Amino acid sequence: MGRTPCCEKVGLKRGRWTSEEDEILTNYIQANGEGSWRSLPKNAGLLRCGKSCRLRWINYLKTDLKRGNITSEEEAIIIKLRATLGNRWSLIVEHLPGRTNNEIKNYWNSHLSRKADSLRIPSDEKLPQVVVELAKKGAQQHISKRGRRRKINTSVSNSTNEITVPVTSEENNDIEFDHTDEYGELDQDFITNCLWEGEGENLEIANDDNNNNEILSEDNYGKLDCWDWEYLDEILNNEIWTNSTKEAEQDNNNNMSLCDINDNMQNCMNKEATPQNIDPMQSDLVAWLLS
DNA sequence: AACCGTCTCAACCGCCCTGTC
DNA sequence: GGACAGGGCGGTTGAGACGGT
Length: 291
Fold this sequence. Notes:
single chain, Myb_dom, DNA-binding
């Protein structure tokens, strides 16, 4: 058994599209509209896979596409959104009118991914308190219980929904890491690694009195997906907000969740709204993200 | 001019989600 | 609820462009 191919590949043309093919596809879609990609090639008289037609249309032939180099403003948006959303290119391009996710993905991979390592917060920029708190929390936990990749075992059913923890001989649970710089300040690289580049595993924290359960908001490979809003929401509401305010303990419903913050941030980026009704600390976080 | 390594990006692959029957 | 088709998406590939020697 195998997966049904999206189309019969025998006899189909592959590789670069010719201008004649582009014209046929464009004319057909203008006359009949988008959709029914599987039947489109046959109806249009193209020797192409339906998926190939769709991709060609979406990425190059649509009339509302923006041509030309990525501007510095667009680049800044890509960097910021990629930091918050991860490789969710389809979400990222929603904020870049006229661009395609393939284009942005390629631009990231060829231009920005190598730059990413140098994308550090300027030393004179003050991190919002909430970020520092979060990173410190992660650092404390990181020392007592070193985080590691965890792969959720979905292939073997078991009654306890157990998380498998592959441990290799090279790994040592007792290793302690110093995440402070020479001035005793929390290492900025560590903070950004925690929060920015998918090293959120460092923020793993115990969730109950016995420190047995952990908040696990990871992908299938045990890697947190950059800004995991749901997870950060858990951390902030359970660990920071509730510890810092009695009111929060009494009425969690009044807390604005990080998901709300994220929504708010997205709205701000869409210029549909401005930050409002946010806790001052959370406001700092939003401001930082938007800066 | 020829060769070679690197970069770019259009295109492809295959997984996954959703809707329909 | 299961099977299937259609479509969307992110990761990867590879041909061509480019730059250095």
